[in-house]
Amino acid sequence: MSAVPGLREDCEELLGAFLQADTVRFERFAELWRERRFHTIFYGKMRALQRKKLTEKTLDLAQQYFLPPYYFQIRVGALYLLYGLYNAQRCQPKQKIRIALKDWPEIQRFHLDLLDCQHYDAAYILRKLRLARAFHFTAMPKLLTYRSKKKIEEEHFKEEFRDPCNRVNNLITNDILEELMNIHNHYQKMKCVISADKSQPDKALSLIKDDFVVNLKDLALEHQEWHQNRLKLLQSVTETDEAEDRKKEEALLKSEGSERAGALARIKYRSYTAPVEVSKSRRHRQVQFESSEPGSSCGKSPSRSKKPSRGPQTPRRRGSSEVRGEMQLAKETVTQHIGMPIIIEEDSDGGELSPPKSRRRR
Amino acid sequence: MNFFLVFLPLRIRKKALERREETIIVDRACRQETLTYEMESHATGKRPDNTTDLIEEGELLLTLNIFYPVIFQKHKDHKPYQTVLVLGSQKLTELRDSISCVSDLQIGGEFSSQPDQAPEHISKDHYKSAFFYFEGIFYNDKRYPECRDLSRTIIEWSESHDRGYENLRSVKMEDYVFNDLSLKIGFPYLYCHQGDCEHIIIITDIRLIHHDDCLDRNLYPLLVKKHWLCTRKCFVCKMYTARWVTNRDSLAPGDPCFFCDVCFRMLHYDAEGNKLGEFLAYPYVDPGIFN
């Protein structure tokens, strides 16, 4: 859908402004809409056929922001946008908004969310659209067309509107933990049954840690915390200019007062960035190492488990440089992948390679 | 004056408009565009006179692309097709009857000696067999006793050598409505009639019927898109669509040569209807007659 040139930019601009306004109220959106005179988007001498196509494509575009994976606020904004576009269109009868079967439960959930959060204006708009019969309930999100294109353009939607989903949290839910707990209990019972002493499993059978589920939960929580911190950091980084950053850092360093700290920080920074290439293979070896010894097969990720130990051990003075390092790191990873860069951090404060076993003991 | 042109699309559109004003003398929709729009919208919002024909809520509406059987080299990037809307509760035979294809209208035989005797019967009346192929099942048209099972040879062929097509079976087309089928959207299926006239069918969309759609059951299957085909004109008057084609014609400038009915008779027969000169004449059906 290469569609209408420039339309995406305009829609994104409006939604971006709505995001900046930091609200989901319709009044604010309407203000923004009026400021931009957005209803004129369908103006221009057009004949019926062209008008129809244009409207179809416009609605199609706006509709994509209405569905996940975008921020709740963007989705509300897209809902208002759809409402505005639907009513501002000049087709007769009006072009409809295509909603695919697979997306409809998502929209119903969204509606419930709106009601739960008492965003009644948004809920009202959604209801209004439904009552106006603005939706086509279709099997596919887009009408299929078949023709071999000379070049197929990739669609780039604005990444900033995307709601960053946390895979780890999605994976480790309460239900899953409970399920795991049940399985674990069951396993334990089975072991008791087959072992000689009925009340306690044989030593030979203890192949797994008993507190595995609890550990997993802790890890998940820890990860969540780290993730949030990182997000905050990311935001602070993106908000301020790089130059400003540098200035701030310099100021911070100066406030530390010692040249040595600066040098240390620089060394540390280098060590933060350096082992990126090595880390993978090393991680691999670590895992192997661990799994070979009995009792640790529950897959307690070594990189994660290490993390809390770092907190108390670091002296306060390190604070600033560490922040700096993390910020640098954050800046680096922004463009790459919101993944698991902690390994690098911990490597740096270890300074050099040490066998994971000894680290865990610390 | 351009105070409202803050949007990129509007600015682009304005530029296009200005260009149009500069270059085009008469600004009006071309015939093609009018046709497309008419086809798309001629039935929107129509209501039946009889309330029993009103389509109920929750009815399914399928969009089918039916491709033309012959794909020319020049169409290799963009295969021409017709688009038809069908209701989920309609029988397959209703779709079969609505598909118009020139090969159904052919008249076989050579009629140079008695042009008035050209039979009224077209191929469709002679050879009524046809089948749809959806998901491993052949839906054969068996409404008439003279219908043959066109799919039989295919099934036998696949069974005879274990060619990797298992579970092919054939059923009667008239027993099935679209709701009974399980279909893949965007998958190419087949409609075959007249023995070897094969149309690819692709289902591009399935949706619930909407208040603003045409709600008259009798108007479905509804043709919403078709091509404007060039018609072959009579070589004499260059005005009317050709009805006859002649071969080895001593009176014609070329071979084959096309004539409309009037010119054909005026040139090839005297006042009493006697044949003049040597030629073979065949009735000709132009693909453009559906325009």
TrEMBL record, chain A:
Residues 238-257, 276-362 are annotated as: Disordered. One of its GO terms (biological process) is snRNA transcription by RNA polymerase II. Pfam families: SNAPC1. Residues 244-257 have a biased composition (Basic and acidic residues). It comes from the Eukaryota. One of its GO terms (cellular component) is snRNA-activating protein complex. GO terms for molecular function: sequence-specific DNA binding. InterPro entries: SNAPC1 (IPR019188). This is Small nuclear RNA activating complex polypeptide 1. It comes from Zosterops lateralis melanops.
TrEMBL record, chain B:
Coiled coil: none annotated. InterPro entries: snRNA-activating_su3. Part of the SNAPc complex required for the transcription of both RNA polymerase II and III small-nuclear RNA genes. Binds to the proximal sequence element (PSE), a non-TATA-box basal promoter element common to these 2 types of genes. Recruits TBP and BRF2 to the U6 snRNA TATA box. Pfam families: SNAPC3. Belongs to the SNAPC3/SRD2 family. It comes from Zosterops lateralis melanops. It is found in: Nucleus. The keyword Transcription regulation applies. GO terms for cellular component: nucleus; snRNA-activating protein complex. GO terms for biological process: snRNA transcription by RNA polymerase II; snRNA transcription by RNA polymerase III. Keywords: DNA-binding, Nucleus, Transcription, Transcription regulation. GO terms for molecular function: bent DNA binding; core promoter sequence-specific DNA binding; RNA polymerase II cis-regulatory region sequence-specific DNA binding; RNA polymerase III type 3 promoter sequence-specific DNA binding. Part of the SNAPc complex composed of 5 subunits: SNAPC1, SNAPC2, SNAPC3, SNAPC4 and SNAPC5. SNAPC3 interacts with SNAPC1. This is snRNA-activating protein complex subunit 3. It comes from the Eukaryota.
